[in-house]
Every structure is written in structure tokens, then in C-alpha cells.
């Protein structure tokens, strides 16, 4: 029986790494021309034959490895998502390889090349924002199943899962209305972010359904606590009557609360403040604990892993899956009894 020549055999004979040999034969990554020719010549001399798509799927299913490539620098989203993915994948006897692309497309491609060379069964691509992103080039992943997490793919044929920010915006306004607040304003981050647009759109829809208008123009800036303070000061100086403030993240909410308190404005008695993200160090360590929305990233990781396992078995779930955010009620909107 003749032993089939493997890609590792080619790499060893050419005195190169497995990842470099894979890139050279599959036309991916930045490989010098002479290196590419060396690998191709070596493969031909050894009689190496690239596997068919079906054979590659079989090999990947036997590896027991899942690649998770994160663009989240601080780990606020990636770590809960990783924990959730491991909850699901561990039961299915899969291990997770975590890498961070730092939001750099070239670094992401390099990580994916390396994971593909190691025969991962599938990939979870996790973004740091909910803005849609270009899909990974097919030539890079060689048919490996992919699920895009938090930052969806722009290709509707891909499998993506993210949060329903529009529904969160509606729920934020409805919660304030439920507390008897009718003079409501919005404090936002950068206007161009998808999360900003979706949350504002949901809030506008809820206000329209209630037959109300916002008491002040929406103020756009950045996501930092300092902007929360500045924008709230501007709101107070404008003299606009406001009894409810929807901040699009917890840092803005904390800045707003601190500014209100410095001006002798009580929270929530005079103004109810609601945020988003449920970052514990921000939402619970504020002088007034913040009512906020949790993105349920751990559950998103679990669902993404289930979607990926289904795709590995040949049953991909195409299109966008939206997950609800959970409202966490604290003292910034509801007074202690």
C-alpha cells in the first residue's frame, strides 16, 4: 500500500513551516515568488495531490479544533463570547484556538491562514462593533465553515449573529415611559456606528408610537465618560426640560449621572438615566448604579458555536440571526423603596 504524501511532507522537504507551504499551494498570504515556486516544485516531485473539498471536510471534522479570531481589543465582548462558545464546543469535544486581529485585516488573514493550515473544523469571526464587515475571501479559508459574531458579514449568504440594537432602543424608551418620563432626550456616541443608528432608530420608533417627540436634539460625540459629562452640561445649559435620558452606552450614562449630581439634579427622582452594555465596572460602580442593557455575549457565543457545529455537519444557517438584549434595572431609573 502506497502512503499518501501529505502537506507536512512537502513542508518538511522544502524546509518550510506547514503554514507557509499551505499558503504557497493555495495562493493565500504574502509569499515570495521563489518560495512559492519551491513549494510547488517540491510538491510535484513528491507526487503530492491536494485534497478534494469533500476530503478536506473529513480531515477538518477529525481535528477537533475551532478557530476564534477576535477584533475586540479589550476583551469586553470576546471573553464572554469565548466562554459561551466553549460551553457548547466542549460538550461536542472541540477545543477553541483564540487569536486577536486587533482590527487589522492583514493580521486577521494571517491568523486565518495559520488556523486553516492546522486543519480547524470551523471559524468564529468576532468583531468589536456591530458594523457589518466584508466576508473572508473564499481562497483564504478553503471552504472552512464560518460564523460571523457581533459584526455580521455583508454577504447575506453567510452565517451571522449579532444583537438587536433596534429592539433595545425601543425597549429603552418604553422603560422610561413606564416610569412616567415623557420629556426624553438621547445622548449618543459617533453617528456613523451601526449600533448608534440602530438604537436611535428604535428609540424614535417607540417615541412615535407613544405620540411624543424628543425634548432636545440628539447629541452625538464619542463613547467616553468625558463626552457624557460635556453633553449633559450642554443639555442643562440649554434649559430644555428633560426627565429621562437615554445614553447609548454605560460610559456616557455614568458621565451624565455625575454631571446631573454636580448640578444638584437628582437621579432618578428628577431625571431617569438608562445606558447600554452592562459593563459591570461602569454600571455598578457608579454613584447611582445604572439601568442598562446586557448584550448577552455569552449566550451569543453559545448560539454561534451551535450554528458552526451545524455548518460543519453540512447544515449551514444562512443569513442574519438577531439576539435580544436583556434589560437590567437598577437605581438610575427606579428609586429604592
From TrEMBL:
UniProtKB keywords: DNA-binding, Transcription, Transcription regulation
HTH lacI-type domain mapped to chain residues: 5-59
Name of a matching Pfam family: LacI
Organism: Bifidobacterium colobi
The protein, known as: LacI family DNA-binding transcriptional regulator
InterPro entries: HTH_LacI (IPR000843), LacI/GalR-like_sensor (IPR046335), Lambda_DNA-bd_dom_sf (IPR010982), Peripla_BP_I (IPR028082)
Gene Ontology MF term list: DNA binding
Amino acid at each position: 500500500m502506497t502512503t499518501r504524501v501529505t502537506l507536512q511532507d512537502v513542508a518538511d522537504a522544502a524546509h518550510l513551516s506547514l503554514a507557509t507551504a499551505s499558503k504557497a499551494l493555495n495562493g493565500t498570504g504574502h509569499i515570495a515568488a521563489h518560495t512559492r515556486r519551491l513549494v510547488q516544485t517540491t510538491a510535484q516531485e513528491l507526487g503530492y495531490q491536494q485534497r478534494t473539498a469533500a476530503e478536506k471536510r473529513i480531515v477538518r471534522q477529525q481535528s477537533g479544533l475551532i478557530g476564534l479570531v477576535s477584533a475586540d481589543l479589550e476583551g469586553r465582548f470576546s471573553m464572554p463570547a469565548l466562554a459561551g462558545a466553549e460551553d457548547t464546543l466542549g460538550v461536542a469535544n472541540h477545543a477553541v484556538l483564540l487569536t486577536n486581529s486587533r482590527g487589522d485585516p492583514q493580521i486577521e488573514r494571517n491568523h486565518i491562514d495559520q488556523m486553516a493550515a492546522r486543519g480547524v473544523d470551523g471559524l468564529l469571526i468576532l468583531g468589536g462593533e456591530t458594523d457589518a464587515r466584508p466576508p473572508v475571501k473564499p481562497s483564504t479559508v478553503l471552504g472552512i465553515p464560518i460564523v460571523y459574531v457581533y459584526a455580521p458579514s455583508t454577504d447575506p449568504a453567510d452565517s451571522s449573529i449579532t444583537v438587536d440594537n433596534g429592539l433595545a432602543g425601543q425597549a429603552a424608551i418604553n422603560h422610561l415611559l413606564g416610569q412616567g418620563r415623557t420629556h426624553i432626550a438621547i445622548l449618543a456616541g459617533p453617528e456613523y456606528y451601526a449600533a448608534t443608528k440602530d438604537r436611535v432608530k428604535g428609540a424614535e420608533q417607540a417615541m412615535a408610537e407613544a405620540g411624543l417627540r424628543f425634548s432636545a436634539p440628539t447629541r452625538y460625540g464619542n463613547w467616553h465618560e468625558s463626552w457624557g459629562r460635556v453633553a449633559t452640561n450642554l443639555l442643562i445649559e440649554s434649559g430644555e426640560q428633560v426627565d429621562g435620558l437615554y445614553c447609548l452606552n454605560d460610559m456616557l450614562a455614568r458621565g451624565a449621572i455625575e454631571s446631573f449630581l454636580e448640578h444638584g439634579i437628582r437621579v432618578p427622582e428628577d431625571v431617569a438615566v438608562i445606558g447600554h452594555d452592562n459593563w459591570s465596572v461602569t454600571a455598578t460602580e457608579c454613584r447611582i448604579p445604572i439601568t442598562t442593557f446586557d448584550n448577552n455575549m455569552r449566550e451569543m457565543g453559545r448560539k454561534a458555536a451551535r450554528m458552526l457545529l451545524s455548518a460543519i455537519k453540512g447544515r449551514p444557517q444562512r443569513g442574519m440571526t438577531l439576539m435580544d438584549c436583556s434589560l437590567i434595572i437598577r437605581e438610575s431609573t427606579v428609586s429604592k423603596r
